[in-house]
Design brief:
The structure holds two protein chains of two kinds. By secondary structure, chain A is an alpha/beta fold. In chain A, 53% of the residues lie in helices and 10% in strands. Chain A is globular. Chain A starts with a helix and ends with a helix. The radius of gyration of chain B is 19 Å and the shape is globular. Chain B is of the alpha/beta class. Classes of the chains: A alpha/beta, B alpha/beta.
Chain lengths: 403, 325
């Protein structure tokens, strides 16, 4: 039994709640850690430190700059990433139902509903603070507010207006400076210049690794598994600022298979993937489809400057081309599609997502004008009850025929 | 004169009014949205979709002033910009009253857009004229509200008064006072544009004695004694300090004032009208239910979906709530 099977088994028999907070179980599991991949080892350390409260814990929204969290000696606990992880273990439905029983509507984003279910069932560690941005997802502001209420801890929010003009960046930087001051007071710990240097060094090293992977995705045939890349998205937003980031992505890059392989179609992926077990990617592989990139792992930021920490982080947040009006996103997607030599685009329409799914028709229209076919796949990233595989398969088959 | 259609009660009509446009809040109509369906997917806020349908059906040369209040509305702005290039403005709306300087900058940006569209050259200080006009309309509205609190105003009359307050092509027409009724209810929701719903209220002989709607009572609560200084700073502070909606503040920060209002109005129940796919309001619901139950206030949740005409179920559910008292 491997580590993830063991954790899944324990979740199913209901004893995981007790085990998650047991120092003994972490000591026992650490005996098997040596042979595990860096991503499993990173997840182990994150869970251990958070549940055993070895360090202060910050619940974070996906795009919150974890560099600030690491600089303060805290552990980021990214709830949307955790929701994806639970779904990938096939454990989403009971937690989704729990949230729905408490009147969290099925129309709300299932990443948030699932995380709320985990909170209501007591499966999350006790945080010290909740940190979120309004970046991309407006629903997240209210979700993280409700989470902070549930755990009776402060919620620090930074708003991300517009799409990154100088006045927007300065407005965000000033909020990050304020968030830093609030956190320093809350934790009674100051960030030293050397903390920023260390954390930014790690973040910049991660960036270097992501650039290498990005250039591999332009190769024909593409050596990078799109399914795996989509699985790694959450880690980019969890590891930035930690030494794990570059180690984890370097190890993955080095493990990529070399040599030629069957590649009939090259497609670019928009939004996230379904995390629960589903036949989508196997089906695509069997038909020679390479996913040569996805938008969320393509946000590459400028090198961070420890002399200007908040300004650098503000600039990094604004490197997310999904912010603001959709023209920016469309322009960046077109450029990525051409760079990766993709023949078409799959836009995965996560049911509860207003910003990405909401723009899918507009995106499709512009891509069509540019001669790039786009398939909108309706589904849900973490709620397997929303999967209609037969319908989805028919639509994918039809799309591949027109390429 | 050209109309300036706007979507959110945080967008000051004072600016288009002074720039020579007729500010009109664009009401959404219930029903199918064949034109909007080309741009916006079915899981977007049904108000945003209905707004787009209305805009695409209009066929005139109106401007569209959109407050960037949520993801759905941002996509609405994208669709409008594609259909009406050069006629759409997206205004960023910060949540905290402390961020009024940033909001004042956004209002200046809007002013420049409006002056360019109207090809006028106006001094910033001239804005005080429109501020006075709008303040007078709101003062009359506030006066009318006293009749509403006493349960003397028919729901349909109130609906028409709200419409006229936000349509500057007409004078504000206060609702007349009428007989009171025992069915005193409080309305919670975003906007309630469908007249058929208000007709159901009338048929049930309800009296709306209080509301927390975007375009309701809160508009009368924007009062500022000292009108001086920079008009953009003034407007930014005025709008960001008004009673907030679920998009701006979480429920706990709003509950104190809201519950005090509800208790003070001697209501028989609260009607909650979340708009379909309105995330901020749906995050309120679990906590609202908890709080209403704890405080013993009867309530009913009646989702408003602009893609459908209101059903008669609405009537039955309100009747059931009123029978519980």
């Amino acid at each position: 039994m491997n580590l993830s099977n063991f954790v899944q088994f324990k979740l199913q028999d209901g004893s995981a709640l007790r085990l998650l907070r047991s120092p003994l179980i972490y000591r026992f599991l650490s005996l098997f850690l040596g042979k595990q991949s860096p991503s499993v080892r990173f997840s182990f350390h994150l869970a251990r430190d958070a549940y055993l409260k070895r360090k202060p814990v910050a619940f974070t929204s996906l795009f919150f700059p974890t560099e600030l969290v690491y600089a303060l000696g805290m552990i980021p606990f990214p709830l949307e990433v955790i929701a994806g992880l639970i779904s990938s273990m096939g454990m989403a439905v009971p937690f989704l139902r729990k949230a729905e029983e408490k009147w969290y509507s099925q129309d709300l984003c299932s990443f948030h509903r699932l995380a709320m279910g985990l909170a209501l069932e007591g499966y999350l560690p006790q945080p010290d603070v909740v940190l979120s941005l309004t970046s991309l997802c407006d629903g997240s502001y209210r979700f993280f507010n409700n989470i902070a209420r549930e755990f009776r801890v402060p919620h620090i929010l930074a708003e991300v207006p517009g799409n990154g003009k100088a006045k927007d960046r300065e407005f965000l930087a000033s909020q990050l400076r304020r968030a830093r001051a609030q956190l320093e007071a809350h934790l009674e710990r100051k960030i030293a210049a050397s903390d920023w240097q260390e954390v930014f060094h790690h973040s910049n090293s991660l960036r270097e690794e992501l650039l290498k992977i990005s250039s591999l995705q332009s190769q024909v045939p593409c050596p990078v598994s799109g399914e795996a890349a989509l699985g790694y998205v959450g880690l980019i937003f969890t590891c930035a600022g930690s030494p794990w980031g570059s180690e984890l992505f370097a190890s993955w890059r080095e493990s990529l298979p070399g040599g030629p392989h069957f590649e009939k179609h090259r497609l670019f992926w928009l939004h996230l993937r379904p995390y629960y077990p589903s036949p989508i990617f196997q089906f695509l592989r069997e038909r020679g489809v390479s996913i040569v990139g996805d938008e969320l792992s393509s946000y590459l930021w400028k090198e961070l400057d420890p002399e200007k920490p908040e300004e650098s982080l503000s600039l990094k947040i604004y490197s997310n081309f999904g912010l603001g009006l959709i023209q920016n996103r469309i322009f960046s997607i077109l450029s990525l599609v051409r760079e990766r030599k993709a023949q078409g685009v799959i836009s995965f329409s996560h049911r509860g997502c207003r910003q990405s799914t909401g723009g899918a028709f507009l995106m499709k229209e512009v891509l069509k004008e540019e001669g790039i076919p786009c398939l909108i796949l309706d589904g849900d990233c973490v709620d397997p009850r929303e999967l209609n595989w037969e319908q989805m398969r028919t639509r994918i088959e039809g799309f591949l025929e027109i390429l | 004169m050209i109309k300036a259609l706007w979507n959110c009660s945080y967008l000051p009509p004072e600016l288009p009014l002074q720039a020579g446009f007729i500010p009109v809040r664009l009401k959404a109509k219930s029903g199918t949205t064949p034109r909007a369906d080309r741009f916006l997917s079915a899981n977007l806020c049904s108000y945003a979709r209905a707004f787009l349908e209305q805009a695409l059906s209009n066929g005139d040369d109106s401007l569209f002033l959109i407050a960037d209040c949520c993801d759905s509305v941002r996509r609405l702005a994208d669709a409008l910009m594609r259909s009406f290039p050069g006629r759409v403005f997206l205004l960023f709306l910060p949540r905290s009253p402390e961020h009024w300087p940033f909001f004042a900058g956004e209002l200046r940006r809007l002013w420049e857009f409006l002056l360019e569209a109207s090809e006028r050259k106006l001094k910033e200080n001239s804005l005080w004229e429109a501020i006075e006009v709008t303040a007078e309309r709101r003062a009359k509205f506030r006066e009318m509200e006293k009749g509403k609190f006493r349960g003397k105003i028919q729901p349909l009359d109130y609906f028409h008064a709200l419409q006229s307050l936000n349509d500057f092509s007409q004078k504000f027409e206060p609702a007349p006072e009428n007989e009171s009724s025992e069915n005193r209810v409080f309305l919670l929701g975003t906007n309630l544009d469908d007249q058929e719903i208000w007709e159901i209220f009338r048929e049930l002989n309800l009296r709306i004695v209080g509301d927390d709607l975007c375009y309701g009572e809160k508009q009368g609560e924007m009062v500022w004694q000292s009108r001086e200084g920079d008009p953009f700073d003034f407007l930014a502070r005025l709008y960001l300090s008004r009673p907030p909606c679920p998009r701006m503040k979480n429920l706990e920060e709003r509950w104190g004032d809201l519950s005090e209002k509800i208790r003070g109005r001697d209501v028989n129940g609260v009607l909650l009208f979340p708009t379909k796919y309105c995330d901020p309001f749906f995050y309120d619901l679990p906590i609202l239910r908890e709080m209403f139950r704890e405080s013993g206030i009867p309530f009913v949740v009646l989702e408003q979906d602009y893609s459908q005409r209101p059903s008669q179920q609405l009537r039955t559910r309100i009747e059931a709530m009123l029978e519980k008292r």
